[in-house]
User: Fold this.
Amino acid sequence: MIAITDGKVMTITQGTLERGTVLVEGGRIVAVGEHVEIPEDAQVYDATGKVVMPGLIDAHCHVGLFPDGIGWEHSDGNEMTDPITPHLRALDAVHPGDPAFKDLVAAGVTTVLTGPGSGNLIGGQWVCLKTAPRPSVEQMVLLEPAGMKMALGENPKRVYGDQKKAPSTRMGNAATLRTALVNARNYLEKWRQYETEQAAYQAKVEAGDKDATPPKPPERDLKLEALGKVLRREMKARVHAHRADDMLTAIRIAEEFNLDLTLEHATEGYKIADILAAKRIPVTAGPILFSRVKYELKDMTPRNPGLMAKAGVKVAIQTDEMSAVKYLPINAALAVREGMPEEEALKAITINAAQIIGVAERVGSLEVGKDADVVVFSGHPFDYRTVAELVLVDGQVAYRRAEESA
Assistant:
């Protein structure tokens, strides 16, 4: 049992305690409050003068899949041989020994959504991980699959245009994506028909019909099976889109096929913030620490997350990075500097991120019963001088700054 005492406790969802205690046992938070009775056998950490928060969450990154100081040997995020690869799983490519994970834990980032890049129209399935390094990736998984990566805009049309194949235009992007979804819908219908025929066959057998012929099942297709989960809303469609027109295309297609849509990056989201709010479409905005490396980023602004949040859009802030995920709070701090309310920016890297990923029942706030992913910061997380001094992941000490300094 661990008791973090007398710190400024930012619960995120239940307000801030100026001098509170967080009690942890068995990997869970068992008490949060100003007057918590501390058992005699508890290991006490005095957080006086410090800030206690839930572990930070990056709702869109590529840690574990792309090189971090290595090279092509660890570049496993884009299978750019086919624009439609929904059967790919990030789980199969994440390297749990990636040194970036240690950097993230030391920065207080305890949960990430990581997955394929945006080279393909449909890149594959995301995975949500705890960042404390483990021998196997399965020991790090919080949610898998955690959504389907899709991408509109420049990236897929550049990749496949260079290969002299479709899609090479934005029209091609949309048409190819629609075609894949229609194929998946037809595939589901074949299986529904088979199940109907199978039920009828079983009824005949039970009635004593010895001449009943069992139906033949459709041939399995891993691509269409994976997309079928998206069509059944068992997986979110997480669509990379920077320009406002690409975001509107994503919305158009999502409405045509009744997809559970999240917009990734949403760089020009501020231009259509009223539409996003009215349609209740969440976004993972960012990265903010970024350059205009391509034309569709020409109108990027650090004011974007704040403008969307003020319009009523649920916003998470993302880094789109690997080891630089450790700068997640700096991204949020820049959004605050440019007008985002501080409370919304804190939610954008905690509870909003957890809700958008689909893991809010486990992480994102300091509440009784949730995973004990707790960070003690030396100061406010948006102060560039602040460091994480203690990090718990699932109730275990994953990082302690004093030990590192010694």
Observations:
- The longest strand covers residues 16-25.
